[in-house]
Amino acid sequence: MGVTYGEWEASVPEDIKADTLWKIRAYKLGLFLSDLVWTDADVLLANRKTISVADQLVRAAGKISACVAEGYSRDTGKARAIFYEYAMGSAREARDWYYKARRTYDAKVVKHRMDLATQIIKLTLKMTSVERRSNRRASG
Asked: How does DSSP assign 69-94, residue by residue?
């Protein structure tokens, strides 16, 4: 199944971990999934039938943490919510692509990746809901 979350987290550069964004679990899980996809895509690229799936999967997974990061940097709850929704959509898309590619991977790998995506979906759903109700502006 590859690297564990703990091993991966230990390898993340301090510049990233020192940012306040690092406290957002959906960001961490999205970044982790993106790193896993980077390796998983090699399997898809080896088969002509799944080359386009690799591209879609890399793009979807890569957008998750990027959208959380961009949303976190916005100054209103409404603006943050928009990007958290984008992250949620990308997590759903990544989960969808893993399901479509399930015949290519061991069932444990597919379940692990889909579970990660589902965790991110739940987190970003909650984050979006909180931010939609928020009128606060970001501080500093």
From this structure: HHHHTSSBHHHHHHHHHHHHHHHHHH
The phi and psi torsions of 47 (rounded to 5 degrees) equal: -120, 125
Query: Which domains, from first to last, does the chain contain?
Result: 20-132 (1.20.1440.60)
74 close to 132: Cβ distance less than 8 angstroms:
no
Measured CA to CA, the distance from residue 55 to residue 111 in angstroms comes to 20
Kindly report the pTM of this predicted structure: 0.92
- 44-86 residue pLDDT tens: 999 999 999 999 999 999 999 999 999 999 999 999 999 999 9
* CB distance 24 to 72 below 8 Å: yes
